[in-house]
Write the structure tokens for this entry.
Amino acid sequence: MIKAAILGATGYAGAELMRLLSYHPDAEIVYPASHSYAGKKFSDIYPGMRGVCDMILREDDIAKAAEEADVIFLSLPAGLASSLVTPEILSKAVVIDLGADFRLHDKSVYESWYKTEHHSPQLLGEAVYGLPEIHRDSIKGKRLIANPGCYTTCSIMTLYPLVKSNLIKTDGIIIDAKSGTSGAGRSEKLGSLFCEVNESIKAYGVTTHRHTPEIEQELSAAADKDIVLQFTPHLVPMNRGILAVCYARIENGVTEDDVSAAYSIYENEPFVRILDTLPETRFVKGTNLVDISWRLDKRTGNIIALGAIDNLVKGAAGQAVQNMNIAFGLPETEGLVTGAGCPF
Amino acid sequence: MIKAAILGATGYAGAELMRLLSYHPDAEIVYPASHSYAGKKFSDIYPGMRGVCDMILREDDIAKAAEEADVIFLSLPAGLASSLVTPEILSKAVVIDLGADFRLHDKSVYESWYKTEHHSPQLLGEAVYGLPEIHRDSIKGKRLIANPGCYTTCSIMTLYPLVKSNLIKTDGIIIDAKSGTSGAGRSEKLGSLFCEVNESIKAYGVTTHRHTPEIEQELSAAADKDIVLQFTPHLVPMNRGILAVCYARIENGVTEDDVSAAYSIYENEPFVRILDTLPETRFVKGTNLVDISWRLDKRTGNIIALGAIDNLVKGAAGQAVQNMNIAFGLPETEGLVTGAGCPF
Amino acid sequence: MIKAAILGATGYAGAELMRLLSYHPDAEIVYPASHSYAGKKFSDIYPGMRGVCDMILREDDIAKAAEEADVIFLSLPAGLASSLVTPEILSKAVVIDLGADFRLHDKSVYESWYKTEHHSPQLLGEAVYGLPEIHRDSIKGKRLIANPGCYTTCSIMTLYPLVKSNLIKTDGIIIDAKSGTSGAGRSEKLGSLFCEVNESIKAYGVTTHRHTPEIEQELSAAADKDIVLQFTPHLVPMNRGILAVCYARIENGVTEDDVSAAYSIYENEPFVRILDTLPETRFVKGTNLVDISWRLDKRTGNIIALGAIDNLVKGAAGQAVQNMNIAFGLPETEGLVTGAGCPF
Amino acid sequence: MIKAAILGATGYAGAELMRLLSYHPDAEIVYPASHSYAGKKFSDIYPGMRGVCDMILREDDIAKAAEEADVIFLSLPAGLASSLVTPEILSKAVVIDLGADFRLHDKSVYESWYKTEHHSPQLLGEAVYGLPEIHRDSIKGKRLIANPGCYTTCSIMTLYPLVKSNLIKTDGIIIDAKSGTSGAGRSEKLGSLFCEVNESIKAYGVTTHRHTPEIEQELSAAADKDIVLQFTPHLVPMNRGILAVCYARIENGVTEDDVSAAYSIYENEPFVRILDTLPETRFVKGTNLVDISWRLDKRTGNIIALGAIDNLVKGAAGQAVQNMNIAFGLPETEGLVTGAGCPF
């Protein structure tokens, strides 16, 4: 039984992780922690979990967590994880960070997009970018796993086969992504109020969203050259889900068969479904799946590749469990769902 | 391994049952059937289930189903089940009917509220009303189980302890219930269009809703006298969930301790949670739970008892699985969820 | 041209009032004020109004407002209005208070339900309860108008004819009301976040909601005896709208014709529609209308009367304009809408 | 007083037009018609309009309409308008067609995208593309006005200044557009059910949507060369609103001042607002406005231009009224709203 600590257990991603681990056959939560709600029952904050997880929340103390747990999940504001994780912590527990602090290999890129100092750049080399479908082998045996962002997971997985197989021009890529409101977190902001979100759609962070360099890093590695791309996120009046619609110009002579062959890289992946029909976020809601589809447009010379995930599962907590499963040698799908009910 | 047939597998309740059974450790679907989609893959109709349940849908043929299955679930329009079920079918398979045909013991009550003929009144005596928390012992060994309605499950379970313990006056009970839109089913009706439901709330079926006699039948049995009550359903712009708010006048001298004692009848029930806080449908979404709370109002002499369920789970497919578990001697919670994530 | 001041112009009710007055042919806003946003443009807070109302917001200073305005609208937290309004202010301007401070005639009832001191009980006698359909004649010429609450407007108007005509028993009245989320206001509360409201319904304030004594006061006056009733509000995942479903036992011998006759009291009211069909909040959205319908249930001996309004219009800002129109001798419907688009 | 006929008065666009004309100071509806509901009251189909427009709906008979009306609005399925409009009709009434039949100048382009025959190609030369901000002068005096599509209005108006001023490369333009569900119309389709739309987002019509050639036609004319572009629409779980996010590569040396200057073409337009902040559909809901904003991204060399409209107003009925106002020499904003309440 893997003993798990969760720091930041009462944010939406942390709470989803609490839920998934509560049902995981080979893991148990031993140290659930929350800065805001320490001392309270988890199920008083999330009454849906009453009877399933009634543990008392503890302080966000990583040292204590490392004494009790085999794996520590961090779901904390940007900049905090990098000030908490140390070699000593890593010697005691595997750390899976759901935040952004260890995702970017280059400290200066991090500091430029996040406008904050990185507190432990010496650890960047030890971290692995925890996108299993691309870096599975590197995840095994690592002590520090940077769990990818929600938009980034969806965008990278949708575009990776096209880039890896050199089917598209690497300049001019555009990603137009749409997210449910849980992506904005549980903090009490005016812009997250029901009446400010409902019955509307908006883009935000145009040209400046922090997930941009993360996508560029991973696709550049796949292309073996620097990729600069356009990423635009949107807020959608729904709880969960991300749809990433990716536009790129195809290289000359690329055929539909070429594209199919490129995506066959995923054919044994338990969490990837390549569809003929177009993805809809409801069909992955509550699951760790990525649904992907694409259309070649001979008229324009573009390929449109579309991916859908649940931002709190494959985009956060589910992928963190997937990474834990890999790191600890468990079956990768354990404790994770691969089919969605409807309507949900 | 219990072999299961589902007739009406592509309605919302039927599809939810397909999903639950797909993950059930001791059951397997052998005969999924759909009048509208026979010959097609279930996962083409419900793409969320691709990779999990890709079975071909068959004709709604109960005789064939009975040849192959140990249990037949019926999720059909009112009046159809009573024309399909026969002693011969029942000799071959347990039938769990998610529809209304076998819920009312009295044929004339059925015909008066449903405005349709009952085709097999001789079977009414063999059917058990499948609300496990009240009729568990009678369910065991029965061949014909009438799975309760969604509104009725929520309403009966909320009021039953008060009636059973004689704490309330049995005249003047009012149930004001609210349901998500999946309760209206998947048929292509104007009133179910997104733009006709969204951003609005309405009552419907005022004084005439068919779930009324079902609630009256069960509460009358508990009270051992005839109860006539007011039931008003509402349509809420959300996918799932029922909230039943029940009003009754308390008998003289009834205290909060009396009420607590009455509800303690549920204390070992795996699917019932008695709350101090008020129930919200989101906290039972996707689960087989009933969340119940109550308030005594000394000012008015009323008790307000509130119950919440997921209409497609405890209100339909989940309760059907619970009944199957009981009928076949499995642990009652098998394949069913007792904690809800949030937001979902 | 009536010169209008609005204190609390950036809450949802205040902003709706700003919108209505911006289009009013005989009124102009001269003093828009906001405690939180003083110094900013109204249209920077409400960008939908850019180009229509770009005025700079001023301090919530009632004395200054009284110097410049003929009418002062107050849309402030409970307890604040009663500390601001003075005879001197009233000598300079008509005050229409959208809050609760002057609605209840009895100071002790106010203090008991609102748990706060009333700062100007001596003015209670000068205030009129501004429900035009009941108190129109008293509103004319008054200097202090207490604009009714949203739930109360809907509940009182639905039940008033039945009480006034002695058609129902006055004990045992139950009002089960449902409101859109704008009723919770624009403050940054966890419970108002999109992900906490969406896909759920809940009751709140059961037995304790502050609108209860307001409804009781008005219906008691109509009945000429004390009425104690049960009021239960709910939060619905939609922006706007209130539906009040009212249950009462009819007096012996009451017929449908009696009920029709009772409601004919409204037949010349420009903002009341008596329907054969059941009301839905979408059909009054954005309007100052009250849609009312009812059903007599001979089976139970109850009448179910249903009313629907837009909580921000007839339940707040629209009714405030209606009161202004009456107080200043304008046509009562001026600047107000009596038809709803759909879908909206 | 302009006498107006509306054929197709009970679809969402037709009904919105009924609403707008009901309040228009210089127009009156004389011939409201509906194929499905002829003989019924308009307000029985749209109860929100009870008391405002209770006219009896007539048959969709354009000849009769032309006898009684000065202007005929058509809101009909594709292909029907082109079989109804004749020179004789046009000699009697101005026709404003909300459908697609007269929008494309080239019959073969129409037939290729719409997969249906065009029945009156000889009239294409007499039709004007009724986008007032671009073709105002041509609209005056025309008898046949092709009211633009919803996506197209939003997309063209957002991109037109950039194209007209030669600031962007005309190859590689991408429009990623998102629409509320009323855009799918009022027909009883599975895909429009509440439970199929709610809590999800999807793209549809990728590479094949019929609004593509309409956008290309207008932008090609502005550029004076052929433009081929990528257009992708999405379905959003909300009633109303379109957001078009347009991506293009800027020409060398283009500055923010150049872009501002290009958009100043709209500075006297009553229905266009150029914003510093990003547009949100809620801020134009219920109005005839187009909100536009843009961002230059030096990192990528792209401009992202964003436009928002209400699909039923500026995207359909409101623009039709605007066209009527122009055609009949009325003030262009008459009967149209230029400010949005919030939340709505």
Remarks:
- DSSP finds twelve helices and 13 strands in chain D.
- Chain D touches chain C at residues 12, 15-16, 19, 22-23, 46-53, 181-182, 199, 239-240, 273, 275, 277, 280, 282-287, 312, 338-344 (CB under 8 Å).
- The first strand of chain D starts at residue 2 and ends at 7.
